[in-house]
Amino acid sequence: MVRYNHHNCRISSSSSSTTSLPSSLLDLRVFYVRISNFKVDESTPEVLTITHIPLHPDTLLELNGVRTSIVSSKLRRDRVDKISEAATYISTDNIRLSGSVKFEVHHRDDLVLSGTLEMSGKRWNMNCEAEITAGSGFLKELSSLLPSVEVYVTGCFSGTPIILTKTVVQLGFRKKHHSRGTALDSIPENEDGEPQKGSSSEVREYG
């Protein structure tokens, strides 16, 4: 039996199956992507695909209550704004994971975004970078500004609600060649440990 507290965090009762995932895991509730500064029209994708891939062989994954080795779900277009030249995509699938994962967002065969969700100490961190370049894929028609991508994730860890956010701005025109399974680089940091200008990250936990 499974129940939820007032923060909508999953709590396992004593009658849970012995085959269920460990209680100390990340329980993802919302995965939100906003792409800005490109021409929004009828050709703007209605659906993107997001895949979560374990970084370690002992990591366990679950999608909407079903155990799986790799999680693949849909980011459905939630809103388009032709005035601000932005489109938002959201997934509310319940994804639970016991360890660090790599995630990739695709539109058909184009890799749009990649990143990682990793445990550091007792905190979860998210790193991500835009893989699609300005002038390619559905970003061929640009506005006066270079495109940017915002990523927003909410969920619970050990019963505590958390929010992870990241903004990647000014996608360049340089050519990039990627294949699925490529190792990911974290966003560069200055000497003081803060992200460099042009990207931002934030982790918030609520008790």
Please provide a written account of the structure.
- The protein is an all-beta fold and 207 residues long.
- It is 0% helix and 50% strand.
- It contains no helices and 15 strands.
- It has strands spanning 2-4, 10-12, 26-36, 47-54, 61-63, 66-68, 71-81, 86-91, 95-97, 101-107, 110-120, 123-130, 148-157, 160-168, 199-205.
- The strands form two sheets. Strands 3, 4, 5, 6, 7, 8, 9, 10, 11, 12, 13, 14 and 15 form a 13-stranded antiparallel beta sheet that branches. A two-stranded antiparallel ribbon has the order 1-2.
- A hairpin with a 2-residue loop joins strand 10 (101-107) and strand 11 (110-120).
- The chain starts with a strand and ends with a strand.
- Mean pLDDT is 77; it is low at 10-19 and 174-203.
Q: State the separation between the terminal residues, measured CA to CA.
A: 24 Å
The count of DSSP E runs of length 2 or more, i.e. the number of strands, is 15
How many helices? The count is 0
Going by helix content, strand content and strand pairing, the class is mainly beta
Major sheet characteristics = 13 strands, antiparallel
Q: Over all CA atoms, what is the radius of gyration?
A: 18 Å
Which residues form runs of ≥5 with pLDDT under 50? 10-19, 174-203
In helices, the fraction of residues equals: under 10%
